[in-house]
Structure to design on (705 residues):
């Protein structure tokens, strides 16, 4: 992974000093609440329902074991002993004291971590495929490009006060969308042209929130070295012309819709053509420098341990299930990619204790070159595990509660912190997730259902990505009471690059107690309707919305 | 009254005849040749006045709220696209914690809001030693400056 040199470290140390000074001036009453707000937000600090929340950046989900141990230390020392993995692959702490945040940031800086631009109306953490670099299907490893974007966006002098937040995601697997790029302000698809040159297909104007919109193509092929100047041009257009009068209409998606994609492209191209051959153009030397940080670790020359694994799987059904769901193939023979699910019953999705963090760091050292990834599905990944170690690793993960063989299944839910923590939420989301997990804990049933994305957001800000869940649940407030609206048919891309879709609302909302029954009705109807091997989404798309609606609400008279 | 500073410390204001963009556009012929300050609001993007920029001894860009970031793009475009060389001043809600960004976007004087502590603002001009991006003061991003 990327290792800071003296320039990166100096910038981070200066950032720590800057925020320490800002906090002191704030506590001295020299900065008003309103003026301190964006300063703390751009250092990842929200003021939540009970306490401030600190969101630590995990650039494109990359972590090493020293960083994970530091997160455990922060959880233990400044928080209530746990952390939460967010849908932007970041790590959140729910209980730090505001006054302690500068010290936490200083502690994190020792392991090259920070909370830079994890909130606020600026360019946020760039996300990508959690399997980057270890799967054979990708055109090229997307992480160096994410790191280049990270550096370019960090303390960008012109874009610290955009109309609204700005999110970029990068996908590098042809025919798939492994980073939900259609739902980002800018989505970058790394592609190769007919001449074999690397470049980017660029989408703009996607986003969830109150007005979910899928991004549109603004550039079919952008050459590799033009990445940053094109981003500069696009965001410069947005910074000048994006709406600032209404925060709900301030994302770039609204500007793109208002101008139309063709006019947007004209404006961006005019700016880009002026910038593209200037000093801001990326150099091959820089691309090479950053790519050197992501070369393969010292893989052994191995062969696939197929026979050995087959024996273990035949002897142990639970291991076999875990292998099938939570382990996927690696580009190198003899290695495997292992997902650690943070979705055990009784724990909010994505939560992990300090003890678990320490143990996972040890496992990373023992089994996976000391590195880990966080995923937008709120799980963790050990990306480079030798196949002959899988059985031993599985036993340890079982003891940790991270071997639930449900990756991609109904109970592998995405869920925001909701009304238990978040001051914005209209409703709680964690109890709904827990009730659904408890109702559908039978593994045979979950396996029979197959892959279903169930996403829960506690309000229309959509941190739980409910719009793109096959089943989406949205918490709403009705006269001070919490209700839940269900939508069906959303999809975030995944294995089908053109398969992204936004869910459609099923009907009137439900009380919290009713939710497990409602989900059960939807699932029963799916099971009843499906033909051999059809997924939930396939059935929904084939039979349409109305039959599902009638299955839940009954037929109109 | 705002405190006028540059990166070194307090500076004396120079008296200029001040015009809004609307006045300039209406009375261009009469005004041309005079020593002028153009004052623009944050909605007035650089493409509206960039071609005329050389007529002014000073352009003052208003930040109605510190969180309104349009002035940063206007300043960069004036410097980098329209080649404006004379004084560029940030006025309005100009605060300590934004002057470093303003400097990088090409401002050279700052009408600091009166409650802001001048010494702290001067110190803030050196917040970061080697930023990643190119800016108006150095066209090279860090990747062209990095010594390895």
């Amino acid at each position: 992974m990327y290792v800071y040199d003296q320039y990166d470290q100096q910038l981070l140390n200066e950032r720590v000093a800057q925020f320490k000074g800002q906090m002191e001036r704030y506590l001295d009453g020299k900065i008003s609440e309103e003026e301190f707000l964006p300063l703390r937000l751009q250092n990842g600090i929200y003021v939540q329902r009970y306490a401030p929340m600190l969101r630590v950046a995990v650039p494109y989900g990359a972590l090493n074991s020293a960083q994970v141990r530091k997160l455990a230390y922060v959880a233990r020392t400044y928080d209530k002993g746990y952390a939460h993995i967010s849908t932007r692959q970041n790590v959140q702490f729910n209980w730090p004291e505001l006054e302690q945040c500068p010290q936490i940031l200083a502690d994190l800086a020792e392991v090259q971590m920070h909370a830079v631009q994890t909130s606020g109306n600026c360019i946020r953490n760039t996300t990508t495929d959690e399997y980057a670099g270890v799967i054979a299907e990708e055109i090229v490893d997307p992480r160096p490009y994410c790191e280049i974007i990270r550096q370019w966006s960090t303390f960008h002098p012109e874009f610290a006060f955009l109309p609204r937040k700005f999110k970029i995601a990068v996908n590098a697997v042809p025919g798939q969308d492994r980073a939900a790029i259609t739902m980002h302000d800018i989505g970058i698809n790394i592609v190769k042209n007919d001449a074999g040159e690397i470049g980017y297909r660029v989408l703009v104007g996607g986003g969830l929130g109150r007005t979910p919109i899928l991004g549109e193509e603004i550039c079919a092929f952008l050459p590799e070295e033009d990445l940053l100047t094109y981003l500069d041009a696009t965001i410069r257009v947005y910074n000048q012309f994006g709406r600032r009068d209404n925060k709900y209409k301030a994302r770039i998606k609204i500007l793109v819709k208002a101008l139309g994609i063709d006019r947007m492209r004209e404006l961006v191209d005019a700016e880009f053509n002026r910038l593209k051959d200037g000093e801001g153009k990326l150099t091959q030397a820089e691309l090479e420098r950053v790519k050197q940080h992501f070369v393969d670790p010292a893989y052994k020359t191995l062969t696939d341990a197929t026979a050995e694994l087959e024996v273990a799987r035949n002897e142990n059904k639970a291991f076999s299930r875990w292998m099938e769901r939570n382990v996927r193939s690696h580009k190198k023979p003899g290695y495997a990619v292992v997902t650690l699910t943070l979705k055990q019953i009784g724990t909010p999705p994505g939560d992990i204790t300090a003890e678990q963090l320490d143990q996972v760091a040890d496992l990373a050292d023992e089994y996976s070159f000391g590195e880990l990834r966080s995923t937008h599905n709120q799980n963790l990944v050990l990306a480079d595990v030798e196949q002959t170690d899988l059985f031993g690793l599985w036993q340890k993960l079982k003891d940790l509660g991270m071997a639930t063989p449900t990756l991609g299944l109904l109970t592998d839910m995405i869920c925001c912190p909701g009304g238990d923590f978040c001051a914005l939420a209209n409703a709680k989301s964690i109890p709904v997730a827990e009730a659904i997990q408890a109702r559908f804990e039978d593994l045979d049933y979950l396996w029979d259902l197959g892959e279903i994305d169930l996403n829960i957001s506690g309000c229309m800000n959509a941190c739980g990505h409910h719009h793109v869940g096959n089943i989406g649940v949205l918490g709403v407030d009705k006269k001070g009471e919490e209700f839940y609206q269900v939508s069906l048919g959303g999809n975030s891309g995944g294995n089908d690059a053109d398969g992204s879709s936004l869910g459609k609302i099923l009907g009137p909302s439900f009380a919290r107690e009713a939710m497990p029954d409602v989900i059960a009705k939807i699932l029963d109807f799916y099971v009843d309707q499906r033909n051999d091997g059809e997924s939930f989404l396939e059935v929904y798309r084939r039979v349409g919305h109305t039959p599902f609606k009638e299955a839940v609400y009954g037929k109109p008279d | 009254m705002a405190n006028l500073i540059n990166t070194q410390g307090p500076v004396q204001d120079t008296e200029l005849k001040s015009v809004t963009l609307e006045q300039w556009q209406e009375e261009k012929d009469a005004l041309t040749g005079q020593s002028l300050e153009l004052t623009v609001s944050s909605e007035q993007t650089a493409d509206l006045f960039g071609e005329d920029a050389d007529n002014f001894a000073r352009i003052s860009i208003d930040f109605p709220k510190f969180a309104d970031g349009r002035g940063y793009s206007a300043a960069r475009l004036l410097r980098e696209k329209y080649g404006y060389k004379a004084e560029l001043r940030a006025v309005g809600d100009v605060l300590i914690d934004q002057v470093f960004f303003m400097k990088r976007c090409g401002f050279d004087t700052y009408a600091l809001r009166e409650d802001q502590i001048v010494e702290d603002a001067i110190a803030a001009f050196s917040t970061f030693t080697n930023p990643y991006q190119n800016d108006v003061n150095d066209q090279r991003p860090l990747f062209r400056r990095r010594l390895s």
Observations:
- The beta strands of chain B are 3-5, 17-20, 36-40, 58-63, 87-92, 109-112.
